[in-house]
Amino acid sequence: MGEWILAKLAWMPGWLQMITLSAMPVTELRASIPIAFTVMKDAWAWPWWQTYALAVAGNMLPVPFVLRLLGPVSRFLSRWRPFERFFDRLFERARRRAGSSIERYEALGLALFVAVPLPMTGAWTGCVAAYLFGIPGRLALPSILLGVAGAGAVVMLVMTGALAGLEFLVGS
Known about the structure:
The protein is an all-alpha fold. Helix content is about 80%, strand content about 0%. The protein is built from ten helices and no strands. It is globular, with a radius of gyration of 17 Å.
């Protein structure tokens, strides 16, 4: 999926491709960092800290807008049946995934939920969870930033450690 998206973004400079890839809900930084270290390693060839900074910045780019607009947009669009079903499914999935930790720990639970580098636990789902559990934007935004930074660090450590281990084994 990430490679297909990159093919569509080929006209952009590399740093903008990375930010765009990190901002998309289907990839976020959970996919953009591994792509930077594998598929695009020769084209981008950035130091680890630059890859990390671009991924976190890109992942956070839509967050303030999603936090601000999710409620009004979902209420408006839910007047039509297909959108109502879409938002019902989206909200139910987020409620199931994030429920207990966010209900119990609120903003800290939100940060921990977003920090888990697994599919469907990123910034986009964190915004949905913040809306569902009534966490105000002034608390949700820093919590999601903390979670995104943590998830990025975990993915970065896995990628750099895995690549270093592979180089050691291969003998490069």
